[in-house]
Design a protein that fits this description.
single chain; 62% helix; globular; binds coenzyme A
Amino acid sequence: MSADLKSSGLEGVVAGKTEICSVEQGELVYRGYEIHDLATNATFEEVAFLLLIGHKPSERELADFIAELKDHRALQPPVVDFLRAAKPMLASGSAVPMDVLRTAVSIAGNVDKRSQDISHEANLAKAKRLTAKIPTMIGHMQNVIDGRDLVAPDASLSHAANLLYMIRGTKPTEEEARIIDVSLILYAEHDYNASTFASRVIAGTLSDLHGAVTGAIAALKGPLHGGANEAAMEMLKEIAVVMDGGGSVEEFMENAFASKRKLMGFGHRVYKNGDHRAGILHALGRKYAEGKGDEFSRWFDIGEAVQKIMLEEKSIHPNVDFPCGMTYFVMGIPVPQYTPIFVASRVTGWAAHVMEQHANNRLIRPVSEYVGPRDLKWNG
Ligand code: COA
């Protein structure tokens, strides 16, 4: 790749300072805490508090935060009306769940009394409301797709357990709830990734939090970013079809390399020697799949074979989206909801960045190098 093309992706460019997160090959840190520590010892609610408020919560602070999130899980009527109206759009394929979620968040902003208020206090209140409501938007959307009654949020369940409950309609086991919880912790924040940068650009014009999150959702949807968790699973399903027809993973990979296909769930702009998050989720997902039987652990067998060939032939490691695809699939979550679940977590990181941007704002406005024609004359 030419140096010009690399720089056009802003690779290696330091675009600002942040106290929220550091993404390094050596470690991934949220406000001073390393990701393995958080994934082992914290809950998503604790991590959300850490990101939004800035420090580890005391017991009292955490209890109040959890109660506040639970209080705000119900959706405003216009959002529910829209989710019901989205059924034909989803059925026809003109919209996918990420599009519907983007619009639902935008409508939630339109009916939020403080939507135009960008003070820190209003932003924090709105961030908590959105964090609470997004799982309900995802759950209700899936209920609408499945043609069943909307599953109301269950206040006895944690954020992660309630999310899975609303999507599937059955209460998750402790292991399932913890796996979703860890995946939300891993997805919560990642410094100046594309969607977060988009949210900061929007916030930098002094626009509002719901608008910034709406724009960030659009950025996250693409398969080069959050959409990779869905695309990775679709690729594994494609490989399974090849295998069921008598082919092999090796054959699929040879064809992929020959056609210069990008394998979804592999590679990263910053992590060139592996993504810290991938191994954590892979281990949990594999153990869970093994517990469910060969039919389920087969997906991890295929995934590991792909990983081995990618590493041997291209020295490219999986990113977190690769094990996420397999893990969510084994849990019975519909594939088009994988990236919306990513949103349910990353909304905390985006909101933290919007608040950081507003607290010390300068319009984000880079320049480009003009390489188009000059001296053309309109009348000849
Ligand atoms: N499959 C095949 N080849 C890949 C690859 C992948 N997933 N990721 C990177 N490469 C190759 C590129 O083709 C390039 O090869 P070249 O130098 O011969 O052209 C080389 O590795 C460097 O990659 P580059 O495209 O410069 O990396 P990037 O920093 O611009 O891209 C991603 C990073 C994430 C966009 C890229 O790795 C990708 O498209 N991955 C798949 C999508 C994905 O999983 N996204 C989620 C990221 S968390």
